[in-house]
Each structure stands twice: as structure tokens, then as C-alpha cells.
Amino acid sequence: MALTASGGEVNDKPLLQVLPDGFYTPRLSVMANNRTHDGIRSVFHLEQRPGVISLLAGKPHSSTFPITSLNFTVRDPANPQSEIPIELSQEELEVGLQYSPTVGLPALVDWAYGLQEIMHGRKVGEGWKISIGNGSQDLIYKAITALVNPGDPVFVEAPVYAGVIPMFQTLQCEIIELETDSQGICPESIFSALENWPISKPKPKVLYTVPYGCNPTGTTATLERRLAVLELARRYDFLILEDDPYHFLYYGTSPRPPSYFSLERGLPEAGRVIRFDSLSKILSSGFRLGFVSGPQAIVRAMDDHSTVANLQPNSLAQVIALSIFSRWGYKGFSEHTERVSEFYRKKRDVFQAAMERHLAGIAEWTVPEAGMFMWFRLVVDAGENDSDSVIRTTALERGVLALPGTVFYPNGRKSAYVRASFSQLDEKQVDEALKRLREALLDGRT
Ligand code: PMP
């Protein structure tokens, strides 16, 4: 293991073997295999050929755009009290206001490769590829569309990020909920699902998980569980969708466990992890920027989807992000993300203290070590078996809004859990919210 720029650890074992492109072809969905290519974007790169005069693209002329300059300031990560002025050059501005490559601006893609090497020990040229998307949500949807056929069985951790449930439901998938606890996915639930699997029925091809500061549970999966899931992926031949928007919001006291993407390096063959990073929690959620790192054949299939769905990620957001990251360097980026995680650690502490004050004896919870969510189980009569009605009605009437656990179970399971987000509120608001929740729960007691 080696220490990374941000104090985490990566697996620096040599990569033994990468699964070949042909491995993925039968695993791609019918839609991905049938997708045809747009005759314009597929020759876009020829515009860069020296000496070529391009009559190709229907690009608007940038002199007709009304924005003539863009200046802004960013915090100096080494000294957050001071600001660094940034002025986009005319060339940068022109790139930002214009159409740009489907996979993202080359310089930002390069920055992301560098980051993945620092954070996860994965090197360029080892059979994987990065593409930028309009937020990680955009990329997760494209990956699912590229891999899953209507009606396919899929594994999801349960409870699961509510934002992926409709993706699988719309495809009428058989959604197999894997049990989780405070350590992450329970490997036995993968075994028990597959133990009696009918021989003639195709097995799940993908497993979806949020490994750090999970949405909704706040759980960070342990190293042992990650290794067990990776081993099962190899044994039972499924791919892991590692959705990791809370990676940089890890504030646990023990070292951050390595990502699935990093742990693959130590396996006899790599190429079963498709990793999703998001800039939403660390740069701006409004920029809509995220990137996928995964096997080339899968990411290329996702790129083909982009060419028909939205052409490319937002150019201007990419140019601005790049200007900030170039100015900061990876060191500044790491200082910045450490500060962000420290911010959420303090928010977690405030929320946890208020939970102790108001909900001790009424709810039970595990303290999260990453992310922005507290997931707690109601133990009073009002919601002991099902938090849905007390949270949706009594709590709302008292003026507090949270999410009942049912929202995170795709198959309609009842849940005594509640998800509360602690990212936005100050200490006074947290205290008031949990006071109201306590009253609602005691009020609703049967
Ligand atoms: N995955 C998870 C687990 C999330 O919580 C979110 C944001 N709520 C997303 C994906 C989407 O992130 P982005 O803004 O990068 O699209």
C-alpha cells in the first residue's frame, strides 16, 4: 500500500492481467450492441489534422456569442482566507463556449487520469478509459443502459440510492436487494441469491454499490467486505458499478479503505469495476460534472450513448473546472477536499450530538464516517415497523421533512428507518428539526 496525496491508501501491486475487449461484447446490452454511429461526431477528430480546412461541423461562430470575458475568484486551498483571481484566456473562453469532444476536454480527461493514478494507483494505458459526463448520474444511467437488457436480474445493495431505482425499474429488471450492515454489503446475501439460481436463467451481470458514506445509510464498506465482493464478482461473473460521489467526504478516524477500482490491481485480472466520480460535492453540483473510469469497451459504449443523448458534457463548466485545477495542482486539490471533508465531519458531529439529545431511546443509529447522511431506525411504537406514515404525515405536520426508509427499497419493503441529511443546516436548525421530530414520534405513538 502507498500513501496518496490526500492521505488515503492505494493498492500499488502490479496489475497482472486486464480482461480483453472481447470479454465485454456479450455483456453489453442489445441497445449498446445495436447503437449506430453518428456520421458527424465520428469524424470530428479529423478537424485537428494539420493542413485540413474543415467544412464539417455546424458550429456557430463564437464572435456571435455575447460573452466576451470571464473573470472569477477561487479560494486559495493553502490559505482559504485569500482568493486567487482567474481570468480565462480568449482561447479558453472560446473552447468553453463551443461544442467540444464527446468524452470531455482532453486536458480535463488527462487531469482525471492523473487523479485516478494518485487516488487509486491505476495507470493510463492499462486497458481502461475515462470519459467525462454531465454529472455522475448521467454516466451511471449510460452504464446501466450499456449493460442491462429489459428484464435482466441485477444486484443492488439495499437500501440503495433512490436515484438508480427508476433506471432499473424502467427496464423492468428483477432487482435483487443485497443485505447490508454497518460494514457494507453482506457477502452471504450474494451467495444465497445465487445458490439456487436456475441453470437456464441468466445470472445478474451487475452489482450497484456506493462504497463510501453510502446514500442513504452513511456506511463506508470495510476492506474485508470489498475484497469479498470483488472475489464473488470474479467467481459469479458480474461487474461492479462503484458509484463514489462521497469519496472525498471521508472523515473517518482510521485510514480510508481502498476503492474497488484500486483493489482490482491486486487481483489476477482487472476489469470488473466501473467507477463513477463526481465533482458535485467538491466543486459545484450545478456544474454537472462527473467522470467514469472503466473498461474501454464499456466506456466506449457509453460514449456512443452520449453522441445521441446529449452530444458531450458542458464545455464551459469543464473549462472553468480545468482552470481551477491547473491553478491548484493536485496538492491544492487535496488540501481543498480535506477541508471539505472536515466541514462535513463537523456537521456530522453537530447532528450526532443533537440526535443524542433528542432521539436517544427513540431511535438507533450508527455514526457515519463519510458523506452527509444519518440513517436511523425508529424504535418507538410510532414507527417501529414502518416509518413511512409518521415521517410523511406527523413529522411534516410538525414542520420537519425527512425521507422514510421505503424510498430506498425498490421492491416495496417496509422500513423503520429514516434518512436525514446534515449537509445544509446550522446548529440551531438541527436542534429545532430534531426537537420537532422527537415530538412527532412521541405524538404518533400508538
Ligand atoms: N450517486 C449518488 C449515490 C448520489 O448521492 C448522487 C447525488 N445525489 C449522485 C450519484 C448524482 O451525482 P451527480 O451530481 O454527480 O450527478
Word description of this protein:
Its cofactor is pyridoxal 5'-phosphate. This is Aminotransferase class I/classII large domain-containing protein. Pfam families: Aminotran_1_2 (PF00155). One of its GO terms (molecular function) is pyridoxal phosphate binding. Belongs to the class-I pyridoxal-phosphate-dependent aminotransferase family. The protein is an alpha/beta fold and 446 residues long. It has two domains: 22-36 and 69-332, Aspartate Aminotransferase, domain 2 (3-Layer(aba) Sandwich), CATH 3.40.640; 341-445, Aspartate Aminotransferase, domain 1 (Alpha-Beta Complex), CATH 3.90.1150.10. 37% of the residues lie in helices and 17% in strands. It has helices at residues 21-24, 30-34, 90-97, 106-120, 135-147, 165-170, 187-195, 223-236, 260-263, 296-309, 315-359, 388-397, 427-443; strands spanning 2-3, 9-10, 71-76, 79-87, 128-133, 153-158, 174-181, 184-185, 206-209, 239-243, 273-278, 290-295, 363-365, 373-378, 403-404, 417-421. It has an eight-stranded mixed beta sheet with strand order 5-12-11-10-9-6-7-8, with helices on both faces. Strands 13-14-16-15 form a four-stranded antiparallel beta sheet. Strand 1 and strand 2 form a beta hairpin. Helix 3 (90-97) packs across helix 11, helix 4 runs parallel beside helix 11 (315-359) and helix 5 (135-147) packs across helix 10 (296-309). The longest helix is centred in the C-terminal third of the chain and has 45 residues, at 315-359. The chain is globular and about 75 Å long. It binds 4'-deoxy-4'-aminopyridoxal-5'-phosphate. Residues 135-137, 161, 163, 210, 215, 243, 245, 278, 280, 285, 290 line the site of 4'-deoxy-4'-aminopyridoxal-5'-phosphate (PMP). 4'-deoxy-4'-aminopyridoxal-5'-phosphate binds next to helix 5.
